[in-house]
Design goal:
This protein is mainly β. It is about 10% helix and about 55% strand. It starts with a strand and ends with a strand.
């Protein structure tokens, strides 16, 4: 992730103005610029914290379309947690209107269901504990890379895929693959994915993670299930120093259920209750040492892209010393109002 200090905000502004002026004066023939994004404001309280935290976030995403079916995208974000403006994503995509596309740049590793959509489109305020856990290993964060994807749509028995390779400044190389089939067995959609991490310096061990997910969508009900299995690179390296064991492997299960109820009201168009449950065992050799997440929330829409969100997120974890005692670390209550465009 590229971080720019506040004093450098003017450079982003000048770049965007330059692009706009070039387009408006005809420097790029038939070039179009569209933009979307979101703003959200709210607060959250984390268990045992000394104060309520303010949660303000914003995103502007510029999409540049050229006449030869090439798309460029610049994703800029900021939040109340820091004074930085961040370039979250920056890429060029070839054959944008075709089923098969090629993307170059600073892009997201789409490993797992939560990474297949933008953060502001999640049904919960924050990602699951499993997604946050894998971020430490680089499995789900962005990187400089190239990705080839093929989207067959949602036609019966359609198959879609994406493959990519990524690099980051920690000198790690990642290879990612994901394939999705529509209408498989009793499910509307089934996907399998894998990511392989290669270290080019320091410890030379390579690591992997696998995912399997399936989902069903009924008239007013949506249900998805997801399984993860992979290696913890950090703990594996610690143990290799002390010669205390083999590779450390984790297991995770995530399920989300949501339903939608429509209202014919001026201020409330729909109400969407959400329930999320996760189980994470950081070491499969010690399944009785784990983390549990139970989240209950509700999203209230006053327009298709305007919603009020409230989440009660209970996270329980134990350790190898006190297996019978669970701690509420990272448990929180949060709410926010979000406007997308």
């Amino acid at each position: 992730m590229i971080k720019l200090m506040v004093k450098q905000k003017k450079w982003i502004f000048l770049i965007l103005i330059s692009v706009y002026c070039s387009v408006s004066t005809g420097s790029f023939a038939q070039t179009k610029i569209k933009y979307d994004g979101y703003i959200s404001t709210g607060f959250g309280y984390i268990h045992n914290d000394t104060q309520v935290r303010i949660l303000n976030k914003g995103k502007v995403e510029y999409k540049i379309y050229t006449e030869n079916d090439i798309k460029g995208e610049l994703d800029i974000r900021t939040s109340s947690n820091s004074n930085d403006v961040k370039i979250k994503g920056l890429y060029i995509r070839l054959s944008d209107s075709k089923p098969t596309r090629i993307k170059f740049g600073f892009i997201k590793k789409r490993f797992g269901l939560e990474e297949t959509v933008n953060h502001e489109e999640l049904h919960t305020i924050n990602e699951s504990i499993i997604n946050r856990y894998m971020a430490y290993f680089g499995y789900v964060v962005r990187g400089e890379g190239v990705e080839i994807s093929h989207d067959s749509g949602e036609n019966e028995n359609a198959i879609s895929y994406r493959i990519g390779t990524f690099y980051n400044e920690n000198q790690k190389i990642y290879f990612l693959g994901r394939i999705t089939k529509q209408n498989y067995s009793i499910f509307d959609r089934v996907s399998i994915g894998g990511i392989y991490r290669i270290s080019t310096k320091g410890f030379k061990r390579n690591h992997f993670a696998l995912s399997l997910d399936a989902g069903n969508e009924f008239r007013y009900l949506y249900w998805e299930n997801e399984f993860f299995y992979g290696e913890d690179p950090i703990e594996t390296e610690y143990r290799s120093i002390s010669d205390s064991g083999n590779n450390v492997r984790f297991f995770g299960y995530r399920t989300l259920i949501k339903t939608e109820h429509l209202f014919n009201s001026t201020y409330i168009k729909s109400v969407e209750p959400v329930m999320l449950f996760c189980f994470l065992a950081p070491d499969v050799d010690q399944f009785d040492v784990h983390r549990l997440q139970t989240l209950i929330g509700v999203n209230i829409y006053s327009a298709p892209k305007v919603r009020f969100m409230i989440n009660g997120d209970l996270v329980l974890s134990n350790n190898s010393v006190t297996k019978d005692k669970y701690y509420m670390t990272d448990s929180c209550v949060s709410c926010k109002v979000q406007l997308r465009w």
